[in-house]
Amino acid sequence: MTFAEQIARAAHRHTSMLCVGLDPEPSRFPGSWRGDAGRIFDFCAAVVDATKDLVCAFKPQIAYFAAHRAEDQLERLMAHIRRVAPEVPVILDAKRGDIGATAEQYAREAFVRYQADAVTLSPFMGFDSIEPYMKYDGKGLILLCRTSNPGGSDLQAQRLASGELLYEHVARLAAGEWNRSGRIGLVVGATYPAEVARVREIAPTLPLLIPGIGAQGGDAPATVRAGWRADAPIVVNSSRAILYAGTGDDWLAQARQAAQAARTELEQARRALAGSGS
After folding, report:
1. What local confidence, expressed as pLDDT, does residue 235 receive?
2. Which of 6, 50, 166, 233 has its CB surrounded by the most CB atoms within 10 Å?
3. Rounded Cα distance, 176 and 62, in Å
4. Domain-located, residue 278
5. What mean pLDDT do residues 120-130 have?
């Protein structure tokens, strides 16, 4: 099963386009766990257990683990997700971007060490930087295209000699000559719904990973209108707004409530769009 098929199946099973990003910050942990990096696994596993029926994917961000020498806890977390939510694909948010033997090692890290179903990649060194990942059958390669941060415009919105903007060119390559394995997706930010729509126009069937709702302020209904199509999955990520929805004894219930609210808002927007015939 390809990554896109995994996403589509999980989205159908849980009636969800929501991805919960796992970005553990020990300084924000609840109660006695606050400041304790040894509790990263416990915190993330608790969130997974509380939300696994509400999501189409989980997305651990590798830097939040590596910064605390917690890569072993990330391995345990990946195994935990596979055990308690085997139907939910896991995206390793690593944004790797290198070539040759180094890229081969990064691919091994993502798909052998951590057993991720997909990994985020920076494509700006060209096809050489994503080709090593294609050796792993079924795994998804999600390329940075039009990111949610304001500084993304410094490069991604620059116009090329062809007349295209750089992010449009990346989308066209990903949907065309680069997509030899049929397993490429794109990262496009919810903070730029017009650009999400443009990417969807260029790449009508590719999976889109869309960060930026929640703490970054992206509009969930606008995101769905721009990116969702019946035959093309979108994976809408929220991290901090869910992980840190509460700080008291009921923090986990509040995290689930925040995830449920985000999932409902996305689903209502999808139903409205489907009902309009768009």
Report:
1. 96
2. 233
3. 29
4. no
5. 95
For residue 39, pLDDT over 70 is answered with yes
Structure tokens, 13: 């099973």
Report if residue 277 sits inside a domain: no
Structure tokens at 48: 């997974």
Residue 190 lies in a domain: yes
Residue range(s) defining the domain that contains residue 175: 3-272
pLDDT at position 276 is 66
Q: Is 31 exposed, middle or buried (0-12, 13-18, 19+ CB in 10 A)?
A: exposed
| Sign of the four-CA dihedral 221, 222, 225, 227 | negative
Other CB atoms within a 10 A radius of the CB of residue 135 amount to: 12
Chain-centre distance of CA 171, in angstroms? 17
Angle at 93 between CA 87 and CA 96, to 5 degrees: 130
Percent of the chain having pLDDT more than 70?
97
59 given a catalytic annotation: no
Write down the catalytic residue from 52, 95, 135, 139. Answer: 95
CATH number at 146 reads 3.20.20.70
pLDDT tens track for 179-212: 988 899 999 998 889 999 999 999 999 999 999 7
**pLDDT tier at 231, thresholds 50, 70, 90:** confident
Tell me, yes or no, whether 185 lies in a domain.
yes
Mean pLDDT of 18-39: 97
Name which of 46, 43, 37 is nearest 69 in CA terms. Answer: 37
Buried b (16+ CB within 10 A) or exposed e, 48-59: bebbbbbbbbbb
Domain count along the chain: 1
Q: Which two tokens stand for residue 11?
A: 């989205």
pLDDT at 89: 97
Cβ–Cβ < 8 Å for 236, 18 = yes
